[in-house]
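Pasting as-is:
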Amino acid sequence: MESSVCLFGGNASKTVAEKIATAYGSHLGKVNVIRFSDGELQVSFEESVRGQSVFLIQSTFPPAENLMELLLMIDAAKRASAKEIIAVLPYFGYARQDRKDQPRVAIGSKLVADMLAVAGATRVMTMDLHADQIQGFFNIPVDHLYASTIFMPHIQQLNLPNLAIAAPDMGGSKRANAYAKHLKCDIIICYKQRTKANVVDHMTAIGDIEGKNVVLVDDMIDTGGTLCKASDMMMERGALSVRAICTHGILSGKAYENIENSKITELIVTDTIPLKRESNKIKVVSVADLFARVIHNVLSNESISSHFIV
């Protein structure tokens, strides 16, 4: 690793940060996070970052202190005279709050974007934002990576006959279309109706399902309600098998039970968020090599477009 580069990992993403550092050919720097008796955090670097390019790796999934820890790390690096501060968020939390979809609500993703910049981040690196336009919330450069670079080879290795790519909702149709186009296979679009968040009341599908090996693709899986309902519906309509590929495995609430009780053959997620527990149906693929390559390209002022498939 160049002497002018430092990589640090937050507590929420220590494992994936270590993998990224190893793939880059280095090690994580030492950062000390002190917790006061009331829960308040204090962050300090145990080595000099003066004049360095500092990469701070931390996903911002709940609890909110994960985000706060990252902000404190950014501020500490700024006050320690780092040359540039790159916030690496494998998972960008609050991305689902990207617009005012009802009166008197906050736009959480814009607020987080502002906080990262105000804290002192000079660049952001993240993966599979819930909505691409969130990049426009930042006034600093954003490297938006796509997990399709990892997932596409995995789907091809499955060598499934009569393959069909499915979007679990209308919002995912662009992503599913890109996968289907690249893999030269059919596409299925699911349509769902909700009365409240995380609860699907009704679902139907557009496209030929019978006799297909279906792969559902999405940017995240939270409670698993949508994916599980979609998989069960497709099996009832004659699908041979249903798999799901999701970048961010949030897996909250009864997600594990929903997946185990569903007709999903396999769920593949990345390690942007650590699993809460193991499951025979869940496989994890790592984003470390991809992030390490992009970090190298950014430092070398090289293009990163070759790492995009969709």
